[in-house]
Amino acid sequence: MPHDHHDHFHHEGMSPSGHPYRADNDTPLTYWQRMEIAVRELLVEKGHLTPAEIAAQIEAMDARSPANGAAVVARAWTDPAFKARLLENASEASREMGFDIGPLNLIAVENTADTHNLIVCTLCSCYPRNLLGLPPDWYKTRAYRSRAVREPRTVLREFGLELPDHVTVRVHDSTADMRYVVLPARPEGTEGMDEAQLAALVTRDSMIGTGLPHRP
C-alpha cells in the first residue's frame, strides 16, 4: 500500500473525467444536520456569536495540518526536557508551542527500538484533529478500525511497514475525550539537522503509527 496520500481501505468507482466518483450530497438533511443549523442560527440570533466568528473558527480548524504535529515531534527530538513534558502531558506540551489543543486529553506514546505504537479508533473516527488536522479517509473505515486491533502486523505490512519479530506492537484505542499521537523514533543520520529540517521528515502516518519518518 502507498503511504500518505491514498485511501488504503476504500475503493470508489471512477467518473468519466478520471476522478473518483462521489455521490451528490443533495439528499435530505439528517436529524443532526438540522440540529446543527438550528443551534448555529439561534446562537447568532441571540447575539452569542456572529457569522464572521463562526467562519473564522471553521477557517482555523481547516488550517490545522500534520505540520503542527511534525513541529512538536521535531522539538521533542531536539529538546530532552520538552520530550519529557510531552510524554507526561502532551496537551500542555503542545500548548507550549502555541497549538490550540482545547480541552483535548492528548497522550503521546513513544516508539522505541523494541516497541511500535499504532493508533486507531474502534468506535468511530476519534483523532487528534486539534494537532494533526482532519484524519485520512482510511482511518475512518470499518476495515482499518477492526483489523488494526485484530491483526496489526498485517495492516502495517499493507502500509509497507515490516517490523522485526522482536518489536512489540501496541495498539491504542482513541475515545471521544482521549486521543493519542505517536512520537516516532528519530531517524539515524539526522544529528546535524535543525528543527525545521527534522519536521520535514515527519509524516502524518508516522504520527499515527502506520509509517515511519522519512530518512534524510
Quick rundown:
This protein is an alpha/beta fold and 216 residues long. Helices cover 40% and strands 11% of the residues. α3 packs across α4 and α7 packs across α8.
Structure explained in plain terms:
This protein has two domains: 31-61, no CATH class; 65-208, Alpha-Beta Complex (Nitrile Hydratase, Chain A), CATH 3.90.330. Helices cover 40% and strands 11% of the residues. The protein has helices at 31-45, 51-63, 66-78, 80-88, 90-96, 129-132, 142-150, 152-158, 195-199, 204-208, and strands at 105-110, 115-120, 168-173, 178-183. The strands form two sheets. The chain has a two-stranded parallel sheet with strand order 1-4. α3 packs across α4.
Task: Describe how the helices and strands are arranged.
Blueprint: H1 31-45, H2 51-63, H3 66-78, H4 80-88, H5 90-96, E1 105-110, E2 115-120, H6 129-132, H7 142-150, H8 152-158, E3 168-173, E4 178-183, H9 195-199, H10 204-208
Rounded average pLDDT: 89
- Assigned CATH class of the largest domain: Alpha Beta
Quickly count the domains.
Answer: 2
Order of helices and strands: HHHHHEEHHHEEHH
Main β-sheet, in a few words? Answer: 2 strands, parallel
Q: Helix/strand/pairing class, anyone?
A: alpha/beta
- What spatial form do the alpha-carbon principal axes imply? globular
